Amino acid sequence: MVQLSPPKASVRTPTAPAPRHRWAAVNRSRRRLGLLYSAPMAALVVVLFVVPLVLLLWMSVNHWPLIGASSPNGVANFEALRDPLFLRAVWFTLKYTVVTTVVLGLVAFGLALLVQRDRPGVGAFRTIFFLPSAVGLASTSLLFYGLFNTEASPLNELVGWLGLGQPDWLGSNGSTLGSTVGMITWRFAGFYMLILMTGLQSIDPELYEAARIDGASRLQILWRVTLPLLRPTLALTMVLSVTGSLLAFDQFFILTGGRHDTATVVIDIYREAFLSQDLGRAAAVSVATLVVLIVLNIAQMRLIRREGR
């Protein structure tokens, strides 16, 4: 009689883990692929930012006429920062920045509160408010120049029909500042409205409901709930508004030709470079402006991060 032995249980040997060098090779391959993808953008940044920045720094320490040979002159170009015309331009730019930031922020915030909720017809109002943002700043300045021009101003005809006289919208009595702020508010209010509306819609509605149950009024809800939670978004709009205002050029150059009482810092740079034909002094003013913008933006970004926590 043949005795059959019981079948042997199959034993599975554990799969050996992949060697470490294989994972290292995969990681190196991924890094190379990432560098390959980012190389075009890095080259673009070098060509369009790093190289011009180095050239700007080099020009700022050289006597560099618009036409002719350059020669080193140390920090003599930075004497332009003491020029009375430059100091006047700085003061006007700061005044314009403060007024524009406050007025534009208030109008944009009011529009955002108006259109934040989905109601019948609110989409049309959002579109109407945002449409001016699609118009270029130079085109907007030309449009408002036609409105403000005292020789053939349809706006003056309307004001005259109302019996309010014939105001000089672009005169040297300070009216240019108000006219330009109004134009910039019309142009950018819809854009900032969209940013603020996004921030408002991200606030949890249950917080508003809890505040109402506690008996808070609308003003108290706005002050104690909406504004604290909206601070990061408000800080972002402030960064954009302040930076754009400090670099203002198109609107004043088109509306007033950049005359001395409406000259901004960027117009002063243009004047040094192309009217005085001194690129070295213009570069020195540009470097100082760049440093101020970097410091200001770092401070504002820290504010955003701190308030966002």
Mind explaining what this structure looks like?
A two-stranded antiparallel sheet has the order 1-2. It is built from eleven helices and two strands, in the order αββαααααααααα. It has helices at 20-60, 84-115, 122-130, 137-148, 154-161, 175-201, 205-213, 218-246, 250-256, 265-275, 279-308; strands spanning 62-63, 71-72.
Gross geometry: flat
Give the rounded overall mean pLDDT. 85
Task: Using the CA coordinates, give the radius of gyration.
Answer: 30 Å
The succession of helices and strands, N to C, reads: HEEHHHHHHHHHH
Number of helices: 11
The low-confidence runs, each spanning 5 or more residues with pLDDT under 50, are none
Keywords:
single chain, two-stranded antiparallel sheet, flat, mainly alpha, 11 helices, 1% strand, 309 residues
Q: Topology of this structure?
A:
Layout lengths: L19 H41 L1 E2 L7 E2 L11 H32 L6 H9 L6 H12 L5 H8 L13 H27 L3 H9 L4 H29 L3 H7 L8 H11 L3 H30 L1
Antiparallel strand pairs: 1-2
Q: What is this structure, in a nutshell?
A:
This protein has 309 residues and is mainly α. It is built from eleven helices and two strands; from the N terminus they run αββαααααααααα.
